[in-house]
Structure formats: structure tokens, C-alpha cells
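Session log. Operator J.P. requested a structure for one protein chain; no other inputs attached. Running the standard single-chain path with C-alpha cell output.
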Amino acid sequence: MFTIRSVLSSLLAAALVAGCASPRNDEGSTAARQQLAPTGKVRVALSVGPSGSQFRAKLDRSTNVPRGVPVDLANALGERLGAPVELIMYDNYVDLLEGARLGKWDVTFLPYGEARAKVMDYGPAYYFLELTYIVPAHSAIRNQSDVDRAGVRVAAVEKSISATKLQQSLKNTTLIQVKKLAVIREQMGAGQLDAAAAGRETLVGLTPQLPGARVLEGTFYALPVSVAVPKNRPAALAYVTDFIENAKATGAVRSAFDNAGFKQAAVAPAAPKQVAQPVK
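Structure written below.
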């Protein structure tokens, strides 16, 4: 079984692609502004769904406006850069990742993944995410080890880290990949699933919509949640790296968590600063 503590050291290097390089000033260098707001706006890719998390926004049913941690962080970034923010919403990872390849957005907040790192560069983590399962009411599944059994139907969102890790680890279970989180809610509510995998807070947020459902204790994987930009934007990456480290230090990330109801969620520690190597 994985824990945040046990994987922290192994994942930190991957999450800190840029180290802690800082932009020249708080207004941002010309290059950073060009790379972060090439259209005049900071286009922020948001993962949205029926349940929010430290990286996923939730739509306000009355206004259809996204709210949550990534929205607060996006607005703070735009304010610091001095540029308006455009929120681009995605209800699935396939389109979000394709948007990075096509240059449709400029920054996002997502869990680290090796496949994702092929189309985006990650800055430092601001949170460490636990992946686990939700099971329906009256389920006989009581712990993590009960899931990998013949006849068990487990769902995960396509292109999610949960789906990738379950493909690698499950030997007996039938893994069902769906387009978006709302499909998991619908299928579990209809009795078509025995379990579903995602981040703990996401699943906890689904429980009121699935009467009697339970989120299992423990985790099958833990990973960093980070700020990221599309590939080959080094000035933008340096700027958002400095931004997220400052947001952790000043309490902006803490406030975003609290505003979204995640008062028990721990903000990731400050990233170690890279030490310049002498020229030989």
C-alpha cells in the first residue's frame, strides 16, 4: 500500500521539472508574459466535474460558473501577472491534454503523470493526492485488497492517473474506462459498478450524490498535484513555479483549500531550491 510519505521523495524530482527558478520581478518578464498570456489573457485549463477537489472545479448549479481551488489559484495568478483570466473548462482529460498539444490553453493545475508530461511541463507540487475507491451501498468490498477479484467491475476516468495505475496493478478485476466523472456517478447509481477509483476528496464529494456509498480507507497510489504549462514555454514555467511557491508560503493555497471546504488537506511543503552548479 502506498502512502504520501512513502512516495514523496520518489515523485518530488519529477514534479519539480523547473526547480524554483524565479522570474525577474513580480510583473513578469516580457518572455513570461508572452508565454503565459499570448492572446492577452491567461487561458487556464480547468478540469470540471460533479465533485470538486484540490485540482478539479465544480460548477455552481445555479450560475453554471466554476468554483474551487483551481479557480482561486487561476485568479491569483492572473492578478499577479496583471492579465485577465479566461477559464477553459474540460469535463474529460482526453480533450484537456489535446488542448495542450494544440496550444488552446496556457496553464493548468493537475496531478503529475508520465503521459501528461509528454505534452506539458510541471512546476512544484502544492498538494499530494491519495487515490482510492468508492463502493456502493451494501457492498461487500471493505478494503483495498478486496477490489482485485474476479467479477468486480471498477471504473476510472479515461486518461486519469487512476486508470493508468489500475491498468498496471489490477490482475483479476474488470476495469471500465469512462469519458468523465459524471458517468461514474450515473453508472454506480444504476448499480452497474462495484467500485470506482479517483482522488479521495473527489470521491468524498460524490458520496452525497450516491446514498450509502463509502470511500475506502487507505490508498493504492499517491502523487503530487502541480501547476503546469504546455511544453516548451520555459519562461512561463519559471514564472508559475515562483508563483506557486509564493502562494504556498503566503497562505494563498491554504485559503483556496479552505474556501473549497478542504480544511484538513495539507499544503505541500516548500520545494527545495536548486543550487547552481559551477561552470567547469
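Operator note: The chain has two domains: 4-128+225-259, 130-215.
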